[in-house]
Amino acid sequence: MVVFLCFLKLVNVWWNRTMASHIVGYPRMGPKRELKFALESFWDGKSTAEDLQKVAADLRSSIWKQMSDAGIKYIPSNTFSYYDQVLDTTAMLGAVPARYNWNGGEIGFDTYFSMARGNASVPAMEMTKWFDTNYHFIVPELGPDVKFSYASHKAVTEYKEAKALGVDTVPVFVGPVSYLLLSKPAKGVEKTFDLLSLLDKILPIYKEVIAELKEAGATWIQFDEATLVKDLEPYQLEAFTKAYSALESACSGLNVIVATYFADVPAEAFKTLTSLPGVSGYTFDLVRGEKTLGLIKSSFPSGKYLFAGVVDGRNIWANDLAGSLTVLKSLEGIVGKDKLVVSTSCSLLHTAVDLVNETKLDDEIKSWLAFAAQKVVEVNALAKALAGQKDEAYFSANAAAQASRKSSPRVTNEAVQKAAAALRGSDHRRATNVSARLDAQQKKLNLPILPTTTIGSFPQTIELRRVRREYKAKKISEEEYVKAIKEEISKVVQLQEELDIDVLVHGEPERNDMVEYFGEQLSGFAFTANGWVQSYGSRCVKPPIIYGDVSRPKAMTVFWSSMAQEMTKRPMKGMLTGPVTILNWSFVRNDQPRFETCYQIALAIKDEVEDLEKAGITVIQIDEAALREGLPLRKAEHAFYLDWAVHSFRITNVGVADTTQIHTHMCYSNFNDIIHSIINMDADVITIENSRSDEKLLSVFREGVKYGAGIGPGVYDIHSPRIPSMEEIHDRINKMLAVLETNILWVNPDCGLKTRKYGEVKPALQNMVAAAKKLRAEL
Length: 779
Ligand code: GLN
Ligand code: ZN
Fold this sequence. Notes:
alpha/beta; five-stranded parallel β-sheet; 28 helices; binds glutamine; binds zinc ion
């Protein structure tokens, strides 16, 4: 009997050692966005807290079960969230800003969702992008007065919940140092407060949680410290050493994983990370972290676990299993067989959920893809292969799919590749400088000073959405569809004429989304039915998939733009989405560099620009709403990105006449650090979001940056239903005139009007035009 038990134990040890697979984190939304609908119904008062909790618990249990069935050894818990994992940490630490009137005790939905979304009397906390992803987190607001307390037991509850289901999980936390580095100082102490000084105050709470987890039986714990991949100062790196030294005794008996992702860890930070006391292993992103392999090879500490992130958490491509296996085998030689764990490059939160629900994609494209559920299987298959139990059938199917993707004529278009490759050497700049161009354009356009315009879209009514949906579903004929859209355009044109706006738009009624609309008409793009990725809270986006060389089979917008131009004597802006934005809001190819794909899109948009010009459109706006979003995490890489991104934009309009006016639009005001790149785009006019941060934008010009092109900093916030008064807009324009020349200033809202109602848009634009006219009279 004893011998038999020993034998069982041995098998168990062998099994555990050899089948090492780990998942950094998993999407919460559910394969069909179940959490989104449950949240929104709860917020609307249509269902109870219990209903919401039930949906959440079902999602968690199915995810744990799926990973456990797949054979994953280190399964994460506490990666579920009702809104955001950083907000969950804020709740755990009881760091609720005073304005939410929280009275202590366990934080419930009321306080939690008030922080996330605001309530009738208090606005939400700020939200910002999570590293360079499209996920947005709720920014903690911390000052010297915050009284931290252990106020959300979510992590422990979830650990126990999984355990009760028979799954022993690794509870995952936003690490203490990253939490502070991602926070902002509270109002009043913005300039002076040192966030890291709070470390001593939050660590005791982490310790309490750790103690409870140990008590509940946890043996592993994961701290996500992805800020380690950023450019950090020495004192910031020291905070990591300080924090993990302080946690060491609390963590004794636990295996601690420190997770990094989204890039390689810079050499200095790597040293700090791998010397942290009390840590058993590290996760590294081997997909985006170009230097990670080198660092591991030269200086991975002995005796530690390496969680090797070879399966891409940020994309939807099937893994090249043979390639990954080679890398893993080489790592085995460095860290030792029993210390290597196969993992994902980052949390799978940033990819789509499950390929099983894709009914729109054909089998060939499907065979090239892996969403979160499939990636879990890939991770485990790699772990099994390392353990000598390679699933040959699975690996050969994967190899066949990889080969088909490489050789498919749907992927490669040699003419496009050649044209894109030829772009690299030269600058692609319009021959005439911007001030001469503006003169030539003014002769043709004859606009008043402070010309008024809007950004493109007009309100998208339910009726309009229905028409588009029915046309797509072939429930109405093309003729009926064109008629309906034409009527809408004509309404929008008439309204703008009545308002006396100078440069008109057609209102974009035919577009569901500014990227999807173009992607659907370009070759090389595919669309999913359920490939949703969480953007923030309950909001998800469904990025197109760019799988092949991009080309434009035929004109995409000329039909609608010329139709709209025929309805008016005023200039009608052609309206396009720029290459960088299309790229940044899609799942992109991983078989060629991003810039290559961007150049290809740029060439397609260039064709469209030139066709619009031929059709008599004299003002063309090329939106680059997401140009800034693509900035790499580390400063050293900014110049290269900005260079090809700005170049791509210039390619689109290098071929037009001086008299054709090129506009661009950007959705953020925070561009002080990239202003020279924006000037380098060489657009004739740029309209930018501004009204939520007047001063910031204008300070660039106050500091003496020379800007010769037309510029339209938004004069009112379109994100709010509030109607700005004439006086307020007038004041705002006046402030701009203090730093910008009168003859370059344009008057326009912050962004497109598609989410607003006509009842808001009409009076707001009326006031905007009145303010411009008043100023013209005063100047
Ligand atoms: N032209 C687009 C619109 O007006 C621009 C949207 C955007 O900048 N996000 O809707
Ligand atoms: Zn915008």
